[in-house]
Specification:
The complex is a heterotetramer of chains A (about 325), B (about 325), C (about 325) and D (about 500). Chain B has about 325 residues and is mainly alpha-helical. Chain B has a domain of about 200 residues. Chain B has 14 helices and no strands. The longest helix of chain B is centred in the C-terminal third of the chain and has 27 residues. In chain D, the strands form four sheets. In chain D, strands 6-7-8-3-9-10 form a six-stranded mixed β-sheet, sandwiched between helices. Chain D has a six-stranded mixed β-sheet with strand order 16-17-18-13-19-20, with helices on both faces. A four-stranded antiparallel β-sheet of chain D has the order 2-1-4-5, with helices on one face. In chain D, strand 19 and strand 20 form a beta hairpin. The longest helix of chain D has 16 residues. The radius of gyration of chain D is 24 Å and the shape is globular. Classes of the chains: A mainly alpha (about 325), B mainly alpha (about 325), C alpha/beta (about 325), D alpha/beta (about 500).
Chain lengths: ~325, ~325, ~325, ~500
């Protein structure tokens, strides 16, 4: 039994499923945080700033969405940040070399997916624990990126490509559309496909899934490829936004992406979580950092605040998941 | 079954090694690396260089030892690198202020203890998954290290601290190696000769058995994390002596190195299966690889990838050997 | 057993591959320490050392921490290098204070060492080669303030807190500010020398400050990040950075950036290497070589446009006066 | 409430009016219970009747909401395992309480390590000596330094028993101790129980096996729905009465089987199969419309046969042919061919306990109902509802977490999963283990219905009466081989045992 538990099985939300309820709580929390912030800073509650927050959250979400699938299967992908770096550098090289954005996009997505495939094979065929397999992969990717880039920067891309990162359509930044698109795709994939159902089942009990005829290895490879592909996609948005690629791009993104997934209510033990939750997680994380910037609070406090939010989110989750031993 | 009741043969030493944590991966990797570097590099097998490797491995070992125990309980401590960093900064600040070793070390150990207690409480009492809890405290420790130093290094460390990195203890060993060896010895005895050690295996292997045996599982679990915090405090002494400074990012990310070393050493993330000596081999494997590649003037980018390959290959060897059971 | 052999072979092959990369030379062997593999500045330094050693017929080996800017790792690399006993060392400490024990080890091993870029607080060096961050900060800021016509609002984007370069660059900028009473520093936030962080900091600060006329970024990557942020928001301001990277020079030529302080890693690499070799060969070397603070702007950008890979080191006598 | 028939000295331990509730469930309701020295008190009840909860209250793992305890007539408190131990209460749990990577001696004395001179230090030599003594008593020749992870299930159960014995318990609670034991080991355990009885140890023995109840029991208490229904002496009752007390209605024990049409074509043909899991040259077949038994001792390779057919274990030589097609793939391929496996471990292998009843019911049949890709939650719920109705699964609704259902209902969900997949060949591995009598009857009725519909069933069971009552013919396994095949007319407990025993 949990140390303390609130009885949230009664009340207005009682008819909702556990998963839906946990997302509703998160949305409420997000609204509360936003409301509190708007008192402290006038600049905060402007449409410009909110769009700004969404744009910043979009990168985090794209990375975190692939990770969500991986974590739903009780796996982990520590290599996403390194994957972004390598994919971005490859895509940048191809764009500069061939002048073709399409080829560059293909290179970025392809490289990301291939890395994901390698992770998936390490985890399934060779049965290395995901934590270690993807950590080893992180080093390998960094090494390859460093070797490939030799400390240089590649910059200056065609305006059409850059618009993907920094442009607007109907007053809303384009990355926000990309984020919403992949949110929808993620929700459909997780909730409305048989593969999604099987992925949840694998996370909840891999042996039972296997003995129910679910091709567990193939599905696992799929989620790692998805995570890699999303890293590849994120790398492209990154590239378009920064208008340059260098070896340390993305290095600092992995832990925040994992944090976003966890704040979003996806359980590290697998089988529980949602895409929408991850989006809310990414937005909450971005909101707080944005707020600290607006108030010009010393950036030294950022890691501390992030850490506290992660623990708090999961702790509150424990309180609301009554009687759940997990 | 009839013959089911007959004696299973007593395990011989080798079998016991293997069982204790597949054991093979780290040992094989270490041997191969040793052989290759000994043949390829002129300076590798010199006493001076071997001492070098040992010295370079001490700090990581001090983290990896308690990490082994934590992983044996099916836990994880991602905050260890950040806590070490914070302890490093605090130790440096106090040492500069007081000019003495004892209060500085005491302060570092106190910080380590506090974070160990915090981690343990979050994990054991509030039931937050270890990965999440310690990811959170990672941020807290890192943030505090930045805040108390405002991002600056702390220098002017008194000699009393720096002496921990020079001279010989017992006329034989440099102090860091002596401390690491003693730490290993203490941890080994703790794990294999005391009740607490048995409870560590039980925490990971079958926590309910422990509760049903009337043992306070939570208390023991907290103790494991406290041990991690204290060892980070002790490691801070070596780190401070080594770099003669406190630095707010000195050991950021070292927890992942420690976890990798534990895994390379053959400890599993599940069911309390593991082997403390394997961790030493894992730490040394990483140390030997880095040192050997440096001696061979291998480009840095290749070194980076080589570390990843090492981790994966060691685990692969274990995975394949595990198949034979 | 088969798989085991395969893996053993893999390991051996890896090591052998590595062995093939070993450079052999009969001339002086230099070990070069830089901070990381990702920042173009250090690549320029490395290229500078290579160019100089080619010209002077020596060989260099690079040592870069596998984790960017890792103090313990650079310490270990120093220890490993001492085992190899190179003829001399060209050294950029990852931290100018915390690498003191490493420098002492080099000194104890009696390997001549030239300090480059970040001036180490402790240790005996053949020479120090570097630029004055203070002067660069001051001159670059001055160029910005002048271009703004001596009035308006400025945003500062700082580098890594506590790093020597950042401290001095900020000090220089603030001293320059004193001469321009009508310029207001709205905010100064750290971007940790990183493009993305600078971009996001800029995006956020633009929300708070509707009127921004100038941006002083402590390096070029952050300046580029700030420019990207403003372009996306359809805003404009004069932006300066420091380091003189190719990217910045391109941006200056394209009219996106006002100026960059020339940190000239290539030249620092050249001179550091030359100083080490000269001292080995018994030629005189000054204790300190500080490059004059030069600001690259549209007027003189053409001179700097040669890619680093194609540059060659100047003659010692031309570069080092007195 | 209890009339004391047997003992002169009065009860050793009493529970009076114990109640215990969990969210949504009243697990124990005013239960009183007493234990006398030197008697074996059998505890019977369907799953979910409250037996396990009662045991956990007794050993201090749960704290009762209401009620009191008395030790030799003195009121006492039990507030944790340590208290229970003080009164000499020891429990042999059904689910193992062993730590895999500790050795046998360490496991036996977990939490009661022998102290040595140095604080915290254990006297390992002393522990091994004492462990040796206990193992010898049980006739176990295992090395006390062996890691428990390296032991088979039966040996682990024996270590569990050794652990309880080592506590010199005055009150020993045994929760289905023979479930994983071979006959020989069961015999040894019974001998041990007799000896303990002679020494005056009181025992509470939970069992689902009627034979044991009458062989060992001095007194029999039946629980139902968390309440005590009755206490009987073995001489005064019969199995039929006990069963009706357990289920609250009369149930026919014979699982009467309807006459079925003659079996159809062969749908499963296993030829000369060898596996790494220990099967040697196994050949057998099953035809459409028949139920074939697979009997044999625990560890004889029955489960391995099912797993090999289902593709869960690799077949190293020989062939498995299903519906005329060679199956050499994984469970996914077996499923595609119409094979279903209802595994032995319901909770570990059969169900995703944290997911809903509906999610579990749908898992194996997703491809049948939703094509290759798209899934519709609404359609899924409708399917789940109809399965729940068809199988009479007792659940508040399809969205209930399956882990919260009783054992019998969980088993129905596992079966429902495969009905939904429209399987044609069902491999049942101990389908009635740990399931109450009422649910057993329902499951057998379902089997009958399946084969009448043209499906084929291979059923593994340790309960010989079940095999005899339900199956059309049976194979008997011994040491990884098929020892023989028995036609319906030849099947008796005697004939099956003879084939399955080693010394036959």
């Amino acid at each position: 039994m949990t140390a303390a538990s609130l009885d949230l099985n009664r009340g207005p939300l009682a008819h909702l499923s556990q998963g839906t309820r946990s997302v509703v709580y998160r949305l409420l929390a997000m609204a509360l945080i936003a409301a509190a912030m708007s008192f402290a800073s006038e600049a905060f509650l402007t449409s410009n700033n909110l769009l700004n927050v969404l744009r910043q959250a979009s990168l985090l979400f794209l990375l975190a969405s692939g990770l969500t699938l991986v974590i739903l299967t009780a796996g982990l992908d520590l290599s996403v940040g390194a994957n972004v770096a390598l994919s971005a550098c490859l895509a940048a090289t191809v764009i500069k070399g061939t002048g073709s954005v399409a080829l560059g996009v293909a290179a970025g997505l392809g490289a990301g997916s291939l890395v994901g495939l390698a992770n998936g094979l390490l985890v399934t065929l060779l049965r290395i624990p995901p934590f270690i397999a993807t950590y080893g992969m992180l080093w390998i990717l960094h090494g390859v990126t460093y070797w490939f880039m030799k400390g240089e920067t590649i910059h200056g891309f065609p305006p059409a490509f850059r618009a993907v990162g920094s442009g607007y359509w109907l007053g809303v930044p384009i990355p926000v559309y990309v984020m919403l698109l992949f949110l929808a795709a993620g929700i459909v994939f997780a909730q409305r496909t048989t593969w999604g159902q099987e992925i949840y089942a694998i996370g909840a009990n891999p042996e039972a899934a296997r003995l129910s005829g679910v091709p567990v290895r193939r599905r696992l490879v799929l989620v790692y490829v998805a995570s890699g592909a999303m890293a590849g996609l994120a790398s492209l948005i990154f590239l378009a936004r920064l208008n340059s690629a260098e070896g340390d791009i993305g290095e600092t993104l992995t832990l925040p992406a994992i944090a976003a997934v966890l704040i979003g209510g996806t359980s590290l033990f697998g089988g529980v979580g949602s895409m929408l939750g991850t989006l809310v997680g990414a937005v909450i994380l971005t909101l707080v950092l944005n707020f600290m910037n607006l108030l010009t609070i010393n950036a030294n406090w950022q890691p501390l605040v992030t850490g506290v939010i992660v623990v708090l989110a999961v702790f509150l989750d424990n309180l609301t998941r009554k009687g759940d031993s997990r | 079954m009839h013959d089911a009741v007959t004696a299973a043969p007593a395990p011989n030493f080798l079998e016991r090694l293997q069982r204790a944590g597949s054991a093979g991966g780290a040992a094989i990797v270490l041997l191969v690396l040793f052989a290759v570097f000994a043949l390829a590099g002129r300076n590798f097998l010199t006493p001076g260089n071997l001492v070098n490797i040992a010295m370079q491995s001490t700090i990581l070992l001090l983290l990896a030892l308690p990490m082994t125990l934590i992983i044996l309980t099916e836990g994880l401590d991602l905050s260890m690198g950040a806590v070490l960093t914070l302890c490093n900064v605090v130790l440096a600040l106090v040492a500069v202020k007081t000019g003495a070793l004892a209060p500085a070390l005491a302060a570092a150990l106190a910080v380590g203890l506090a974070f160990g207690l915090l981690n343990g409480t979050l994990v054991a009492a509030l039931r937050i998954p270890p990965f999440v809890a310690t990811l959170g405290t990672l941020g807290v420790a890192q943030g505090l290290a930045l805040v108390v130093t405002d991002g600056q290094s702390v220098v002017g460390i008194p000699d009393a601290v720096q002496q921990m990195n020079s001279g010989l203890w017992f006329g034989l060993l440099p102090p860091p190696i002596a401390i690491a060896a003693l730490a290993y010895l203490a941890m080994h005895l703790l794990l294999y000769q005391t009740r607490f050690g048995a409870y560590v295996f039980a925490l990971g292997g079958n926590r309910e058995a422990l509760t049903l045996a009337g043992i306070h599982a939570r208390g023991n679990l907290i103790a494991v994390y406290v041990l991690g915090g204290l060892m980070a405090g002790l490691a801070a002494l070596l780190l401070t002596a080594r770099i003669n400074a406190g630095h707010p990012t000195a050991a950021i990310g070292m927890e992942f190195d420690a976890i990798a070393a534990v895994a390379v050493g053959g400890t599993s993330f599940e069911r309390g299966k593991g082997w403390l000596l394997g961790t030493v081999l894992g730490v040394l494997a990483v140390g030997v690889l880095r040192n050997g590649l440096n001696l061979m003037s291998v480009p840095s980018s290749v070194q980076v990838s080589a570390i990843g390959v090492l981790v994966i290959v060691a685990l692969l060897i274990d995975a394949f050997r595990g198949d034979r059971r | 057993m088969k798989t085991l052999q395969t893996m053993t072979l893999t390991l051996a092959a890896l090591a052998a591959l590595a062995a093939a990369g070993v450079a052999r030379a009969d001339n002086e062997r230099l070990a070069v320490f830089t901070k990381n593999q990702t920042n173009p500045y250090f690549q320029a330094v490395r290229l500078g050392t290579e160019a100089a050693s080619r010209q002077m017929k020596a060989t260099v080996t690079h040592y870069v921490p596998t984790k960017p800017d890792s103090i313990p790792e650079q310490m270990s690399q120093i220890e490993d290098v001492i085992v190899k006993k190179p003829d001399a060392i060209v050294f950029i400490p990852v931290d100018y204070k915390a690498m003191a024990p490493g420098v002492q080890k080099i000194n104890t091993a009696k390997i001549p060492v030239v300090n480059v870029t970040d001036r180490s607080e402790v240790g005996a060096f053949v020479s120090f080669v570097g630029a004055s961050d203070y002067d660069l900060g001051k001159e670059t800021a001055r160029a910005l303030f002048k271009a703004m016509g001596g009035k308006g609002n400025v945003i500062g984007i700082e580098g890594v807190k506590g790093s020597l370069t950042n401290i001095d660059r900020q000090r220089g900028m603030r001293d320059a500010l004193k001469d321009f009473p009508n310029i207001k520093l709205l905010a100064s936030q750290p971007g940790n020398y990183q493009r993305l962080q600078a971009l996001q900091v800029m995006e956020n600060l633009m929300q708070s400050y509707p009127q921004i006329d100038g941006v002083f970024a402590a390096n070029d990557a952050m300046a580029s990040g700030a420019i990207e942020a403003m372009e996306a928001a359809n805003r404009k301001a004069l932006v300066v950075g420091i380091n003189g990277t190719k990217e910045a020079i391109d941006a200056i030529n394209a009219g996106k950036m006002l100026a960059t302080g020339d940190y000239n890693g290539f030249l620092q690499g050249c001179l550091g290497t030359m100083a080490a070799l000269r001292s080995l060969r018994g030629q005189p070397v000054p204790k300190e070589i500080v490059l004059p603070a030069a600001v690259i702007d549209k007027a003189n950008a053409a001179r700097h446009a040669v890619p680093v890979e194609q540059r060659s080191c100047p003659r010692w006598e031309d570069a080092v006066k007195g | 409430m209890i009339t004391d028939h047997s003992t002169q000295a009065g009860p050793l331990f009493e529970l009076r009016g114990i109640s215990k509730s969990f969210p949504g469930v009243r697990a124990l309701d005013d239960v009183s219970f007493e234990i006398h020295p030197g008697e074996v008190h059998m505890l019977l009840g369907e799953n979910g009747a409250g037996k396990s909860t009662l045991m956990k209250v007794l050993c201090g793992a749960y704290t009762a909401d209401a009620g009191e305890f008395a030790h030799r007539g003195e009121p006492v408190h039990i507030d944790g395992p340590a208290d229970a131990r003080r009164y000499g209460i020891a429990v042999i749990f059904q689910e193992f309480t062993l730590v895999p990577y500790l050795n046998i001696a360490q496991n036996i004395f977990l939490g009661r390590e022998f102290k040595s001179g140095f604080p915290g230090w254990v006297d390992a030599a002393g522990m091994h000596r004492e462990a040796r003594r206990i193992l010898d008593q049980l006739g176990l020749a295992l090395d006390t330094r062996t890691m428990v992870a390296d032991l088979g299930v039966a040996h682990q159960q024996m270590v569990e028993i050794a652990k309880a014995l080592s506590q010199q318990a005055k009150i020993l609670v045994l929760d289905e101790p023979t479930a994983a034991l071979s006959d020989r080991e069961t015999e040894r355990l019974f001998a041990m129980i007799a000896k303990l009885k002679a020494d005056g140890v009181a025992m509470v023995y939970i069992s689902h096996r009627m034979a044991e109840v009458f062989e060992l029991g001095d007194r029999i208490t039946v629980l139902r729905d968390g309440r005590k229904i009755a206490t009987r002496m073995p001489g005064e009752t019969a199995p039929a009465e006990l069963v009706s007390l357990m289920v609250g209605r009369k149930v026919d024990m014979s699982y009467a089987r309807s006459e079925r049409p003659p079996a159809g074509p062969r749908v499963l043909d296993v030829r000369n199969v060898h596996t790494n899991s220990g099967l040697v040259d196994v050949s057998l077949n099953v035809r459409a419309g028949e139920i074939v038994g697979l009997a044999g001792l625990v560890g004889s390779g029955r489960t391995e046969v099912a797993r090999a057919i289902f593709g869960a274990d690799r077949v190293t030589s020989g062939t498995v042919e299903v519906f005329g097609k060679v199956q050499r793939g994984d469970p996914a391929k077996a499923r595609a061919l119409g094979v279903a496996l209802i595994p032995e471990g319901r909770k570990t292998q059969g169900l995703a306990l944290i997911r809903s009843v509906a999610d579990n019911l749908l898992l194996a049949g997703l491809h049948k109902h939703f094509g290759k890709r798209w899934f519709s939650p609404r359609h899924g719920l409708a399917i789940a509802r109809s399965l729940i109705e068809r199988l009479r699964v007792v659940t508040p609704g399809p969205l209930q977490r399956v882990g919260l259902l009783s054992g019998g209902n969980q088993q129905k969900v596992v079966i429902g999963k495969w009905l939904n997949a429209e399987s044609k060949l069902f491999l049942f591995d101990e389908p009635t283990r740990g399931i109450d009598v009422g649910a057993k009857a329902e499951i057998f009725a379902l089997l009958d219905q399946l084969v009448r519909g043209g499906a084929a069933v291979l059923m593994i069971s340790s309960e010989l009466p079940e095999i005899i009552a339900v199956c059309d013919r049976t194979y008997v396994m011994r040491e990884g081989r098929v020892a023989g095949e028995l036609a319906r007319a030849q099947m008796t407990e005697q004939s099956i045992l003879t084939l399955g025993m080693h010394d036959a």
